[in-house]
Amino acid sequence: MSTVLQPSFDATAFKIITRAQWQAAADAWHRWGPFVGTWLGEATDVMFDLARIGPGCRVLDVAAGAGEQSISAARRVGTNGHVLATDIAPALLERAAADARKAGLSNLETREIDGEALDVLPAASFDAAISRVGLIYFPDQQRALAGICRALRPGGRVAAIVYSTADNNAFFSIPVRIIRERAQLPPPLPGQPGPFSLGAEGVLEAAFAKAGLRDIEVRKVPSPVKLTSAAECVRFERESFGALHQMMVGLSDAERAQAWQAIEEALSRFETVDGFVGPCEMLVGVGVVQRP
Length: 292
Hints:
Blueprint: H1 11-31, H2 33-39, H3 41-50, E1 58-61, H4 68-77, E2 82-87, H5 90-102, E3 108-112, E4 126-132, H6 141-151, E5 152-163, H7 170-182, H8 203-210, E6 214-222, E7 225-227, H9 230-240, H10 242-247, H11 253-267, E8 271-272, E9 275-278, E10 281-288
Parallel strand pairs: 1-2, 1-4, 2-3, 4-5
Antiparallel strand pairs: 5-10, 6-10, 7-9, 8-9
Helix pairs in contact: 1-5, 7-11, 9-11
């Protein structure tokens, strides 16, 4: 059953804007790829392990972005395996494909597909599906999960990484709060996509269960954001966090600059003698597709 959204949230417009912003941010997100790989490395390994990704597996990566984790998965599955990296923004996938070629990986394919329109894929054609910080941004998470489950063989595994609560992700929630206040945005609507939409206790488990998955497990993975300074964290977010730019649409250039300055000042509390350490906690969830 699909998530019911309040009429004032326009899912179609949200997707159009999201695609455009990721098209524009593709180069920056790709440039930050090595940092993201380190930052989310432990959570990614947990996701792979829970999904039982190994030699010979056929893996579907949903909302793959620039494909840093797709390439890691391709290395895991080996020459007898296959990874299909999908995303709504082709500019991101172009970079993933280029990196795969440079790495000599012929077992990684990219394809532009909306994560809520996976019915274009053959049914029961994958062993596992992964999504790293992607499922949270789907307007209809149940539709996405239904498409993922359809694409997996019976007994296949769905694994996803999402942010936990706003309180445990201050590196991101502080910018969100500051921008929301300055742009005079209302609180998120029930069911509205966003970084913390699956982070509350039991919410990810409930979403997987509603999609018909079984043997559900969710693990918390501390994932501190380690950079040289608060200014560098702001640069990372400013260059590559489309969600923040989406929230700033109604602000003037001057107001945006002031907001980023306020964010840097607020994040400076996390600077230490060893550099910036931003609080971040990820949840890694897995579920198994029911056998008929």
